[in-house]
Amino acid sequence: MGRAPCCDKATVKRGPWSPEEDAMLKAYIEERGTGNNWIALPHKIGLKRCGKSCRLRWLNYLRPNIKHGDFTPEEDSTICKLYISIGSRWSIIAAQLPGRTDNDVKNYWNTKLKKRLLGGRRKDRGAGTQQHRQGELDGANDGGEQQPLSASAMERIQLCMQLQEMQNPLSSISNHNNPLHLWQPSSHHQVAATHSNNSNNNSNSSRSSSFDVTVAAEQGQSSSLNDQNLGGQQQMETTATMDGLASPSSAGNSNIVTIEAELQELLYSATTTTTDSVVTQQGGVDWWSYEQGRSPVNCWDFTPETSSVLQDYTSVVYDM
DNA sequence: AACACAATCAACCGCAAGAAC
DNA sequence: TGTTCTTGCGGTTGATTGTGT
Fold first, then answer.
1. Does the keyword Oxidoreductase apply (predicted)?
2. What pLDDT sits at residue A154?
3. Distance A273 CA to C20 C1' (A)
4. Which of A85-99, A219-233, A266-280 has the highest mean pLDDT?
5. Which of A12, A42, A38 is nearest to A24 (CA)?
6. Nearest nucleotide to A136 by CA–C1' distance?
7. Integer distance in angstroms from CA A192 to C1' C2?
């Protein structure tokens, strides 16, 4: 027995929004607000649209202060930093970029940033069309005299992405998109994974760090994960579990463990050498330290290692 | 000029979480 | 306490636009 659809697809209009529809939605919300009920909103306005569609249209396009157009180098840098650290948590990443939406950031990463970063490094992967496409990217990237990412930087990004790709057939083990999720064994996540045994590969079970991007963007300020956004209990739980990382073997898959070990080595070795710096850390990068009173984003005292990744990244992207 | 292919991005989908009842 | 409803999220799709041949 499936879940009831949120609206009647036979009677609801789909596809691109017309200027008239945009105007109606915008005028109504600006005058009366959403009424905290997106489902009822289209009926009130007289739009033949699904409530979810209205919400998406408002958040991604009609909302005030939405920024369209090219991303700045600073924004690129922020996206890259956050992706390397927390993975595809687009709403969180977007919240750090006033005026940008998660959809925008996601599209931008998938269509541009990712290719800029990895385009020239994956010749041995795939076949057929994929290889053909990659070859074109390789050509684009290898042709110039651009400075490559340092091995460490590239490796980290690639491993993160590789790990993400491998998560797909293993959703029952880890269906969280955070590349580092495998050794992020909070009970919260374990429970979530259990609940999603029947979910498809795309599901994202963890909402432990969700927060109100809409409010943040509408306020025109950077948001953070704080006690309001992350329940106190969850926060303590996360902090506690991060004190003792689970054994990688708990993931139960040798392939995952192999990559995990590589990542562990990269991230948690006492001394990490890059082409740019030697980094000594106490226990490695504390990716998920949700300390009391500090948001995981705001507490982003980027390590020198991360900075080196970014320096590499920036030089590659903007020297092109 | 016509076609094929690639890139982009708005919109959709399905899921989980949490609120409401 | 269990069920239903709504919201928010990330992944994916597909129409449109751009580019190369």
1. no
2. 53
3. 43
4. A85-99
5. A42
6. B6
7. 19
